[in-house]
Amino acid sequence: MIADGTADQLKALTGGSRIDVVLRDAGQLGAAVALLPVPKDVISVDPDRRLLSASVTDRMAALSGVVRALEAAGIEAEDVALRRPTLDEVFLHLTGDEHRVKEPA
């Protein structure tokens, strides 16, 4: 067993909420990552879906900061959403390489 708790308790282990941004133009993903007001190491990029996703602690500050930054740069978002992490994301977070137990040699 890696973790125990309710769905909400496990979701809290990932650092809180996530912000998802779907851009109109996939060619602007790199520019959008560079200007988003969140740490760059928490941003995941899905070019096929034109999606940027990041863990955020202050939901409203992240939402307003992302919208302002995109608008100032002239980058058009198709959708911006705040959401709780999924249980799949919790599983991946908990079973990533940094959390994996090493087998004895």
Description:
The protein is α+β, with helices and mostly antiparallel strands and 105 residues long. It has a domain at 17-82: Alpha-Beta Plaits. It has helices at 7-12, 29-35, 59-73, 87-95, and strands spanning 17-23, 43-46, 51-56, 77-83. A hairpin with a 4-residue loop joins strand 2 (43-46) and strand 3. It is elongated. It starts with 6 loop residues before the first helix and ends in a 10-residue tail after the last helix. 17% of the residues are buried.
Chain-averaged pLDDT: 82
Order of helices and strands: HEHEEHEH
Quaternary state of the chains? single chain
Can you give the helix content as a percent range? 25-40%
How many beta-strand segments?
4
Principal-axis shape:
elongated
CATH architecture classification of the domain at 17-82: 2-Layer Sandwich
The low-pLDDT segments are: 97-105
Largest sheet features: 4 strands, antiparallel
Main β-sheet, spatial strand arrangement: 2-3-1-4
* Individual helix count: 4
How large a portion of the residues is in β-strands, by DSSP E?
Answer: 15-25%
Radius of gyration of CA atoms, rounded to a whole number: 16 Å
CATH topology of the domain at 17-82: Alpha-Beta Plaits
Tell me the name of the CATH class of the domain at 17-82. Answer: Alpha Beta
Helix/strand/pairing category = alpha+beta
Cα separation of the termini: 21 Å
